[in-house]
Amino acid sequence: MKANFTSILLGLFFFSFANAQDLSYARKIIEKLCSKDFAGRGYVNEGDKKAANYIREEFTQLKLAPMGERYFQYFGFPVVSYPARVFLNADDNELMPGEDFIINPGCPSISGNFKVIRLDSTMVDNNNEYKKWFKKNLKSYFLIVDELKGKKFINQARADAILKNEVKAKGLIFDKQENLVWGVSMGFEPYPIIYVKKGLLNRLTLKIKLTVDATLTIHGTQNVIGYIKGSVQPDSFLVVSAHYDHLGMMGNESIFPGANDNASGIAMMLDLARHYKENPPEMSVVFIGFAAEEAGLIGSLFFTENPLIPLKKISLVVNLDLMATGDKGLTAVNGSVYPDLFSLLQTCNSKGNYLPEIAPRGKAMNSDHYHFSEKNVPALFFYLRGEYHQYHDVGDTYKAITLSKYNEAFGLIRDFMNARMKLYY
Ligand SMILES: [Zn+2]
What pLDDT sits at residue 205? Predict the structure, then answer.
């Protein structure tokens, strides 16, 4: 297209305004999604529902065109949640849920006082000792395993065998944990496992008092989907996705806010929606806030099996998950599966001088891009890397994140999407 001088000047003028990302908008979104009211966007106090409603409100304000029923695509899945008590006392010291200990995702309900035995490597390694020891009736016991030492001689499968077939103890305690990393489960585990932070139990711990109230429900939830119609090729689609769910609450006190994972991805997705609303894209751009990612990529599985647009019309999925850092650069999962897309991404990065390093990774079932690429839709998952160690724990808070390379990552992703749209000419 030929442009005269005035329109170039006007273009430059608008460029400086309309192409800007909005860090304060992103911060506002993240702070809101991490607030107490949203209960970690999980399965206690309707956390995920509140988050979905909030994203729908933003879509409405941005005047995105709705997909599904007023932006919602409904589905259900089984999930174990902990809306009431999760309580642990070791000897007579109360431990804080989330801070001092976590339970295994899918931990069944349990309540009572239990004796504990520290599992020693000689009890497992030495055959005679082992047999003698396992003759004991341990039905009212928890076995304690040192995590560091334990890793060498006991793993989950071995623990399963010991607890189910050989000892029939009540449950297991992994002691001396460095990080308390939690998750979401769609079903009950056979017995409770408690992970206790380093330095809180001693060798002489004799008894625990434990209460866990667990519920298994079929949880109704929804993907949140809006789009902007393309100005040149409305029937070709780019998808920007981010999951809005997180782990929720472990009992009625302990919240997992999920600032980096993945309020940050939702904020960038909304910011990109705001950007493309002001700068109409040539292809249609669909924005999807996925539910139930932490439970096993359920929202994206449901969407790809019940797509609201034909999957073969999607030329690119950009999935954003963990976007709050970036000092060490960005990783593109599926980058080595789609070398052409990856080199386009690298070109955009060097042209804009955005991030210190762009690294490719192979296929991985670790976020919502996965079910797209499995169905032959080109899909990349971007996450930022930096000095940030809060992952699936109570410390992943709004206050802890820096968003140090948010502007750069936004610029890179915008340029990459624009370049991808240009490839069609
Ligand atoms: Zn995530």
Answer: 83
